[in-house]
Design brief:
Blueprint: H1 4-14, E1 33-41, E2 44-46, E3 49-52, E4 55-64, E5 67-76, E6 84-93, E7 96-105, E8 131-140, E9 145-154, E10 168-178, E11 181-190, E12 205-220, E13 223-234, E14 239-247
Antiparallel strand pairs: 1-4, 1-14, 2-3, 4-5, 5-6, 6-7, 7-8, 8-9, 9-10, 10-11, 11-12, 12-13, 13-14
Length: 248
């Protein structure tokens, strides 16, 4: 990406996943801005969970006066990989951000019934939809970014008693710059019981401890190719992942 604004708009689109929200530092613009791009990643890791191997992840976003609408998808190289399409509507002003995301997967099981969900995109049956609806609120303090996410409808996880868990996730991120690279230290936590994260989470736990770095690779005098690498550890599942990606 060649300008700071393009990088901000990319954050709006890509944060639908996995950190999946508009950039909390984006200031309101007086004109319509748009972004289109794609990432090629060696593995799809979301909130400490492995969701796929080599994947192509396109993104599209528009923003106007702090409001943003973004689409993000993921398609694995293997035909058996789950396909994903997410839509996010958000608003940000100063350091504050708020968004609502509709996650959709082309296959999977309903958390309440254990039965397969419908592969039809416009199917919204209570116990068969493949959509999950999530609300996000966050604030960018500068040296620290805090975001809270809660599922409020759709194929949410459940508790042992069978009731909706309103599955939630608290993410804390610390951006750093040193050694000529842009770094992020991320900490993700599950606050209460749910089957939505890590197979089953009985209560509070740390689900994601990550360190990532990005660097613009100069291809020509007028074109750079952003590259990023990320090490992720999930203390809850004892999983560890190292991923690499290129942004186009």
């Amino acid at each position: 990406m060649k300008t700071t604004m393009n990088k901000k708009l990319k954050v709006i689109a890509l944060a639908i996943l996995a950190t999946l929200v508009p950039s909390s530092g984006m200031m309101a613009q007086d004109k319509l801005e748009a972004f289109v791009g794609a990432d090629l990643v060696s593995g799809y890791i979301w909130r400490g969970q492995h969701l796929g191997d080599v994947s192509i992840q396109p993104s599209l976003a528009v923003s106007y006066k702090g409001f943003s609408l973004g689409a993000w998808g993921s398609v694995g190289i293997e035909s058996s990989d789950t396909k994903e399409l997410d839509l996010t509507l958000g608003y940000s002003t100063g350091g504050f951000s708020f968004s609502v995301t509709d996650y959709w997967f082309n296959k999977g099981d309903n958390f309440k019934t254990g039965m397969p969900t419908s592969e039809e995109y416009f199917h919204y049956g209570t116990y068969s939809t493949a959509h999950v609806f999530e609300a996000q609120i966050g604030y960018d303090f500068g040296p620290l970014v805090v975001n809270w996410y809660t599922n409020f409808a759709g194929n949410d996880g459940i508790k042992k008693n069978g009731k909706r868990a309103y599955s939630s996730y608290l993410a804390v991120s610390v951006p750093l710059t040193f050694g000529g690279l842009e770094w992020n230290v991320d900490l993700g936590m599950i606050p209460w019981e749910t089957t939505f994260y890590n197979g089953y989470t009985s209560g509070f736990c740390v689900s994601d401890v990550s360190l990532s770095a990005t660097k613009d690779i100069k291809v020509t005098s007028s074109f750079t190719l952003p590259a990023f690498a990320k090490v992720t550890v999930n203390p809850r599942t004892e999983g560890a992942y190292f991923t690499f990606g290129l942004s186009f």
